[in-house]
Amino acid sequence: xxxxxRRIARLTLLLWALGTIAATVWTLSHHPLAQPFINRTxxxxxxxxxxxxxxxxxxxxxxxxxxxxxxxxxxxRVEMLLDLSREHDAPLPExxxxxxxxxxxxxxxxLATGRECGACMIDIAHCPRLSLIGACALPFExxxxxxxxxxxxxxxxxxxxxxxxxxxxxxxxLGLAATVVAIPSMGASVxxxxxxxxxxxxxxxxxxxxxxxxxxxxxARESGGATRVGEIAADATRIAVKxxxxxxxxxxxxADDAQDLRRLARxxxxxxxxTGRALEVLGKARSLRLLHRVSDLxxxxxxxxxxxxxxxxxxxxAMLKLMLRRLAR
Length: 329
Known about the structure:
Blueprint: H1 2-29, E1 37-39, H2 42-56, H3 59-71, H4 75-87, H5 94-108, H6 110-122, H7 131-142, H8 144-159, H9 166-180, H10 190-204, H11 210-221, H12 225-243, H13 245-252, H14 258-271, H15 275-282, H16 284-289, E2 292-294, H17 296-328
Transmembrane segments: 297-320
Keywords: Membrane, Transmembrane, Transmembrane helix
């Protein structure tokens, strides 16, 4: 009886090994490494971001960053960190919370807001709060007057023999052209106008990386470059629409080049207003990695290969044991 059971066991193990080999060959024949990662849906991205941020946001993470933001007199960052504390139940020392709320109160008065808004309208590079860009600088810059003013500024620079900023000139020209054709196109060019304005403001605020600036400059010089500049501007528009105008400049600072900008736009489409917080908590590289996941086929293939290696290892161990027994006899 025991001999019969051993035969059944051996046959079962043999069939299992053959099945594992066949399944491994089948999965490898479908080239799982050709597309090891697949795009997550918006809902999956939001879930992954929420889980990752919940693990990261702790009092130990929050307190030093809030101290730094208060010292730097950065109300936007202070407000964001307080929101993270509330959303993730990360308690803060009462004195630190009181100092943070006092800083926000100092920037919320009508006199302080009016003074800061005036600074934004004069020079966006000196705007003390990102949230004021949308309320103070953006309305004027989105109008044709904003593009005309930029072209005037570059024209004066050229007349005086200075270096014309070809990126700002191209973006202002694109924005003005989009405004002109807005009515004939029934508003189809408005998103391009919004993106071009966002990039132009980021350029003035020195918020564009050298590589992204180089991509825009190269596109502006090339034949038919307006189309390429428009594509880059469209990605900036996606960020502004989903994450909000106040966050756009801060998110644009993370874009190393045009391809990076497209990935950030995809992140903004999924995360929406939480985009800035995700980048603050997780960093750009980690946030963008959450846009993709390992494909099911690759995960299955890896599992089958590991199972096959384990079976081959067990077989080798059994054969070695048998050989040692015979030598011992």
